[in-house]
DNA sequence: CACAACTTGTGAGCGACTAACAGTACGGTA
DNA sequence: TACCGTACTGTTAGTCGCTCACAAGTTGTG
């Protein structure tokens, strides 16, 4: 038997999903998000509009699908527990971003950020998704049933860090990915918190 | 002539606007934002749907209309120029929020925040509007044509402050406006920046 | 009173999104 | 191999947010 590999159905599913998303990102980059209809994406992908919606709950998810919450949360959890929360979170963000900016997903990430920067609906959705990231960070630092007050404080710290990172991501996309992304994130965090976040420093 | 008072047209205009918004907020509070159509709002207000759109560009603006950017920016500009940006912004936010939470708009503010907290679309739009606030703060601190690098640093600081404040606003709405709002905002800022933001302290 | 400016309602239409139904291909089973 | 439940897809129709074009009524002005 051919191992426990995913079934044909599963492979097709992820393949059409990938196909649809790649056509979507291409069309959005060419004509803009608002000037591309879901029907356009469907036609370009050779499927019906309904199929697009079955794979992506909303048009915006064609761009935003793919969360990094667990990566960030794992990075935060991995940092020494005796660091103050802001440093823990901030440095974990810099590390996570370094991994992403060096990976094969770099171009994908850049394309998505470019769209986000100048499409209000996408920008808004992305900011709201940071709310989920914030909660993932809080869970990583405090466990599943945290005391409300501690959750409040950690939530404030996490959302402040994420907001600073967002400014860095925005600038990175605006400058077409030329600057060093982890450096930008570290600089944004330093500007906000008056502290070093480059992880070469001890 | 009857002075320079607003014309009849103008008075009617602001009156219908107020009427529509009050009916909208009432209906949204009763049935929820997503389960209330713009047509419902129009009917309740005794106007056509088109009129609603002429006064409010989108359904979401029925809740979000009314920006505080200029208030915040003025507050930031009013603080001593020798303070570091984060303290300047943070304390200005606490002061602005104190004014608002004590004013007659308090119930209106609370109603709008309640809707924002549990309606994803509104939450997202509100977060995105903080982007505009961030730019207003940067403009207040740096003038109209700032150097990109300084704008980046101030933007990071401002967005981090606003994110922390948002956590406080969320909690305030979740607890039905019972806690002291400026105190909550100060606590969130303190948790994020490890510094005091109550303006009684020197 | 006449004319311009403004506001509103109506109707048609687009696009995002959903629900219901039907057809087809896959996966395991006898 | 033949069979059947399951999953995936397409089609159709419909709701809702939102825009445009046009007509009609009201307000302000000479």
From TrEMBL, chains A, B:
Record feature DNA-binding region, as residue ranges: 37-56
Pfam families registered for this protein in UniProt: TetR_C_14, TetR_N
Top-level taxon: Bacteria
Signal peptide: none
Keywords attached to this entry: DNA-binding
SUPFAM superfamilies, A to Z: Homeodomain-like (SSF46689)
InterPro entries for the chain: Homeodomain-like_sf, HTH-type_TetR-like_transc_reg, HTH_TetR, MftR_C
Gene3D superfamilies in the cross-refs: Homeodomain-like (1.10.10.60), Tetracycline Repressor, domain 2 (1.10.357.10)
The HTH tetR-type domain, residue ranges: 14-74
The name this protein goes by in its record: Helix-turn-helix domain-containing protein
Native source organism of the sequence: Streptomyces millisiae
């Amino acid at each position: 038997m051919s191992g426990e590999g995913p079934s044909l159905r599963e492979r097709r599913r992820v393949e059409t999903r990938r196909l649809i998303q790649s056509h979507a990102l291409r069309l959005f980059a060419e004509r803009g998000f608002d000037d591309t209809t879901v029907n356009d994406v469907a036609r370009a992908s050779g499927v019906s509009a309904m199929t697009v919606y079955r794979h992506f709950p909303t048009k915006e998810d064609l761009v935003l699908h793919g969360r990094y919450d667990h990566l960030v949360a794992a990075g935060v959890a991995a940092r020494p527990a005796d660091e103050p929360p802001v440093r823990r979170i901030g440095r974990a963000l810099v590390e996570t971003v370094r991994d992403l900016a060096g990976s094969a997903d770099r171009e994908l990430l850049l394309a998505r950020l470019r769209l986000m920067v100048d499409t209000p609906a996408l920008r808004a959705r992305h900011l709201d998704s940071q709310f989920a990231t914030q909660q993932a960070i809080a869970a990583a630092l405090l466990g599943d049933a945290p005391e409300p007050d501690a959750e409040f404080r950690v939530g404030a710290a996490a959302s402040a860090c994420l907001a600073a990172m967002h400014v860095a991501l925005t600038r990175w996309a605006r400058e077409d990915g030329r600057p060093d992304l982890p450096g930008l994130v570290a600089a944004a965090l330093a500007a906000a918190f008056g502290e070093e976040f480059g992880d070469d420093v001890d």
